[in-house]
């Protein structure tokens, strides 16, 4: 994950934990994006790492959805093909998936989902 995207995600998680302290452990990151050596990558693949998984998952069923999957993008960055494929798969089984490129869009999506 690029530094600007990481800072955005950190700000969003911090806001969420302050705004929804009782739910704070139900929003978690999926550390899929870092570069790793071949041995570590092989181990993680064997453990079940899936390419394209969203950056954050809010594991709360709401409004007919099983969970909220959040892909963070900084600025004008776009989803990869693997991210689009994963989005289609999780939406097909009842999860909501959103792409957020600012803290404002994150707050809007979270509040809309939870309220």
Q: Can you characterise this structure?
A:
By secondary structure, the chain is of the alpha+beta class. The protein has one domain (3-114): Trna Endonuclease, Chain: A, domain 1, CATH 3.40.1350.10. 44% of the residues lie in helices and 14% in strands. It is built from four helices and four strands, in the order H-E-H-E-E-H-E-H. Strands 1-2-3-4 form a four-stranded mixed β-sheet, with helices on both faces. Helix 3 (81-92) links the parallel strand 3 (68-72) and strand 4 (96-100). Helix 1 runs parallel beside helix 4. The chain is globular, with a radius of gyration of 14 Å.
Number of helices: 4
Strand percentage: 5-15%
Q: Which strand order spans the largest sheet, edge to edge or round the barrel?
A: 1-2-3-4
The CATH architecture is 3-Layer(aba) Sandwich
Task: Put the structure in a nutshell.
The protein is an alpha+beta fold and 115 residues long. It has helices at 3-19, 38-47, 81-92, 103-114; strands spanning 27-29, 56-58, 68-72, 96-100.
């Amino acid at each position: 994950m690029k530094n600007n995207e990481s800072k955005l995600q950190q700000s969003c998680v911090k806001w969420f934990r302050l705004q929804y302290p009782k739910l704070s452990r139900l929003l978690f990151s999926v550390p899929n994006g870092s570069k790793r050596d071949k041995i570590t990558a092989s181990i993680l693949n064997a453990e079940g790492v899936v390419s394209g998984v969203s950056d954050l998952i809010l594991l709360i069923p709401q409004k007919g959805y099983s969970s909220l999957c959040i892909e963070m993008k900084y600025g004008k960055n776009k989803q990869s093909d693997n991210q689009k494929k994963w989005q289609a798969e999780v939406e097909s089984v009842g999860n909501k998936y959103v792409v957020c490129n600012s803290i404002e869009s994150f707050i809007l999506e979270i509040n809309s989902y939870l309220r």
